[in-house]
Each structure stands twice: as C-alpha cells, then as structure tokens.
Amino acid sequence: MKSNGSYEQFTEKVTQKQWDRIGLGRRAGVAVPLFSLYSRRSVGIGEIPDLKILVDWCVKTQMSILQLLPMNDVGFNFLPYDSQSTFALEPMYLSLEEIRGVKAAAYKEDLGRLHREFPTGQERINYGIKAAKLELLLRMYHACAANLPKAFEEFVETTRFWLDDYAAYKVAKEVFKNAGWHDWPEALRNCDSKAVEDLRLENAEAVRYQKWLQWQLYEQFKDLRSYAAREGVFFMGDMPFLVSGDSADVWANQAYFNLDAASGAPPDDSFAGGQRWGMPPYNWQRVAEHDYDYLREKLRYAEHFYDMFRIDHAVGVFRLWTIPGAEPIETAGINGNFEPADESQWEDHGRKLLSFMIEHSKMLPCAEDLGTVPECSYRVLEEYGIPGIDVQRWLRKWGESYDFKDPAEYRKNSIVAISTHDMSPLAAWWRYEAGTVDRMIFERACGRCGIAFEDVLSDLFDTESSHYGRLRWKPEMDHEDKLLQCVGSSKEGAGIVLDLYRGSFDEKQKFLHYIGLNDENEDGWSNELARAALKRASEAASVFCIQLLQDWLVLDNVFEGDPWKWRVNIPATLGPDNWSIVMPFALDDLAGFKATREIRRIHEETDRH
C-alpha cells in the first residue's frame, strides 16, 4: 500500500522553520543506543565514529533518520536517563584512535591490551572499559597538553556556561571518592564561588583534562554529524527532560530544582505501582526568572550534533508527577501529585515551554508522549506540528471493538514505532505479552471489583505458560460469560476485569487480522509475521517511522535464544540486564544482511524513500 498523505499543514505551524530544514517527506529511521553497538575497530564499547557505518546502512535501506539514546556523561552509574550532565557527552564513546593531537601509533600496545581485556561481541557490556579508557586518555592528554590548539581554547570559551561548572564537578567527584555533592564540605556543597574557585586552582590540570575530554568528544561528534549530513541522514538526539540529582547541572543550578521532591509517574496500565525515578523536579519559576538560560544553552549546545531532538517524558512539560522526598522508596510512585497542581494551568505551562524550545532552536522537537497523557498534550502537539509517538501495539479501539487501528488513523504528526527502548521488542511481545494481562494490574483490578484473585487465578490462566509477570488466558476462556461465571460476578460488577479481558484474550488474532495474516500463525513466530508488522507500521499516516534496530533485524534471524533478553530496559526496575545489551554482530556486517534489501523494499512499497 502506498500512502498519498500530505504533510503540507506542517508549514503552517510554529515549527515551520524546523520543517523547512528537515523537509516534509515520509521518512524512516532506526533507533539505537551506542553502547549496544560496536565495529571491528571498537575498544570495548561502541564509539562515535562507528556510527558512520550505521549511516551507510541507513542509506542502503532508504532510512534518513538515525535516533540515538542519550549520549550524556553517565558517570559510573551507566544509566543514560539519569546522567551527570545534560550538556557533557560520555567519554567512553571516544575513539582512542582518533584523538586530536595524539598519534595513535604511539599507543599501539596499550590499544592492543584494551582490545584483549575488553573484547567486543560479548552478551553484556563490561563497563569497566570506561575507567580503562579514561586512564589511557589521561596519558594521552599529558602527552599533548603543552601544545593544545587554538580550537581547544575557542571551545572552552564558547561553552563556558556549562563547561566550567561541569569540569569542577567532575574533579570534586574524584577528590571526594565519587561521593554525591550532597556529601561534600558545606561551602562546596552550596557551590560557594570562592570554594569552587579554590578547587579549580588546586586542581587546575585535572579541570583542564575534563575540558579536553569534552573537546575531543565535540570534535568526533561534529565530524560524524558532517559525514551524516553529506549522506542525507539526520540525527535525532535524545534530550532527557530530567537530570540526576547528583549532577553538575543540579549542583551548579540548585535554585532551578526542587531538591525536596522526586519525579516519577503515577500508576497506570503498565505499572500498577507507578514509578519513582528520583530526579528532582524543576522550579520553573526560578528558571523563568533567569530567562530560561539553562534550557536555552542546553538546546544551543545540542544543535552541534543533532537535527532533531526527542523530548523525553514530554508530558512532563505540561505537568510532572512529583513525589515528596520523605515518601518511602517502597511506595514507588503511588503517593504523589501533579505539578502544577491546578489542571487548568497545564496547557499554558506546556505551551510556554514548547514555544521557548521552538523559538530558540533550529532542531525539530519530537515528543515522547507516552504513559498517562493529558488531553491538552495531543492538542498542543498537533497545533504546533510536533511529532509524538504512536506505538503500533497500543493503538487500538479501546472500549469499543478493541481492534487495532488502521494505519490511516495514526496521527500525521507522529513517529510510528513498533516498540521503544522501554518496551519488549516485537518478537518478545508476540511470545510473552500478546494475549496476556499484567499480573499486578489484574490483581489490583480484582481487588477493586471484590474478586478474590488467588481463588480465580488457576481457573482463568495457564500459569505454566505465563512468564515475566504476564498471565496468559486459558484457551477455554473464549467467551466473557465464562469469565463472569468463574469470577462469580455480573458485567457491571466485574467492569474493570472484563475490560482487561476484552483487550487481551484475542489480541493475537486481532493483530494477525490487522497485519493481513491468518490465525494459523498465532502460536509461532515467523519472518512473514515480522515483515507484515513492519510494513504495516511503515504504511501509517505518521510522517516518521522509526524502529529499534532489534525490530528491523528480526527479519534476519540474528537474535538467538529468548527474545526477552534483547530488551534495552525494563522501567521501574534495577538490575544488570538494563542498559547493557550488546548486538550479536559487528556493524561492519550490517550491509551483508539480507534484511538490508528487505527493509529497502518495505520503504519503497510504502513511499518512505
């Protein structure tokens, strides 16, 4: 199916200048975390120049958007959405062979040793590579520190708004054995100007080293951006809406944050207990009093690297779920409230912030508008010409037929996605989630309907085929009357439970019908199913179609074993499997995959080329 959709209306929006730069064509793209990639030249982890190979692959597949997860400095916690700076980039992504002012040949033995100690292609990242790289980078810095070029000094001068504070923060973290700034001596904790200046003077060379690292990152990323531009590929950056409480941003701008509260998300259909992320909410009044300088400078620096930017948790621009700092961790996000508290202020609040972003940046904003979304968000994004995200598996006629929505019904101002980094990829969804309900949500629904969950559990669900917190319906529960009989309730009394049943029992059959396949595919997984789902997404009215690399390459059978392990992150959980997956191939091999030709055909068939 070819789309005859037009996007001319975007030229009449406040984002007109951004759309003029991007163009109005139907574009396709791929979303990746750099830490999951590697080339044959990489040392321990994906490196910035490696992305040139991915740019080349995008060209071969007719994709023109490369979306990156946050590239910011994560310290040693390795949580990309809980970074130590929303300006500074992550040093472990530097290519040691392309350090400016340094002859890589002089460090051949060191590079060989790192290759042996931190081999790429393992199932999970060994984040020890960061400390090892920093040790060698420090030696490289000392070898060239006396003869740094004018370009370095110019970089330091033009980034002074954030770089001075960031470098001081990083040095203080080292001085105080990685302690959070809340535990530093009082004067330094309060960012007293004299205490900070004394720190800089006493550690002048260490401060300069931190600035040198950021300059090297700037140069490598700028070179990558230029390469992509020549090939016609746009970069979409990921701008975390929030920043870690233990960060240079918060330490240096404490008045801009509410340090007595934690941000999160209220309970919803995906997370019954809500979420508590921990990052401090903004004090927008204080930010406004300084003409939003923090936000303006963040956008200005990101423009060096990106053509578009994803506003993480964009609904927080309108209102943010705020949890009192004294609330026990165990209650997650249950006990909180929205800020602003007055719902009538949400739309104006969002308009003000989004208008500022549009006015002060050439980048096209894109909104991650998932979760519990206020109605005003959809209206404002459409009015402003800002793409949101339409997730294929979630776009259904809820409360009616529960069928999957026709691709023509997707928002034009949207990015159609089969899954995101916070979700299971397509193959894992099909195997473990489609046709199931979340155990915690179902148990909570039973409680609200006066149904004894434990008493009906084994009658309703095949617990042996239920995995990862999901409950799979028994095949004999093929009519809602049987469900009502099992739970001993009427339609009215079991309303919430009945709604969960209607939305999940025959989900697989409905999805197969939606992508044009027969029910005989229901129990298995096939390339035919994967291609049909990808093509159906590409047919959407959405101006952009961006999929995880895992979902594109499922066409090539490169992912072996349990598909669940290829998740990037499981929200509201902590563990070694989050933010640590590594693709089971080198980027150098991409061009030879048969999926490359198949993806190109999908884009040609759906006018995304």
Write a concise keyword list for the protein shown above:
609 residues, alpha/beta, 8-stranded parallel beta sheet, 23 helices
Describe this structure as you would to a colleague.
This protein is an alpha/beta fold and 609 residues long. Among the domains are: 88-233, no CATH class; 436-505, no CATH class. It has helices at 16-22, 51-60, 108-117, 128-144, 150-158, 160-175, 186-189, 193-202, 204-230, 248-252, 284-289, 293-302, 346-359, 375-384, 426-433, 439-448, 453-460, 480-487, 495-502, 507-515, 527-538, 549-552, 594-605; strands at 27-32, 65-68, 234-239, 261-265, 275-276, 308-311, 320-324, 337-339, 364-367, 388-391, 414-417, 436-438, 470-472, 544-548. The protein has an eight-stranded parallel sheet. Strands 5-4-7-8 form a four-stranded antiparallel sheet, with no helix packed on it. A two-stranded antiparallel ribbon has the order 12-13. Helix 2 links the parallel strand 1 (27-32) and strand 2. It is globular, with a radius of gyration of 25 Å. The chain starts with 15 loop residues before the first helix and ends with a helix. The model has no long low-confidence stretch (mean pLDDT 95).
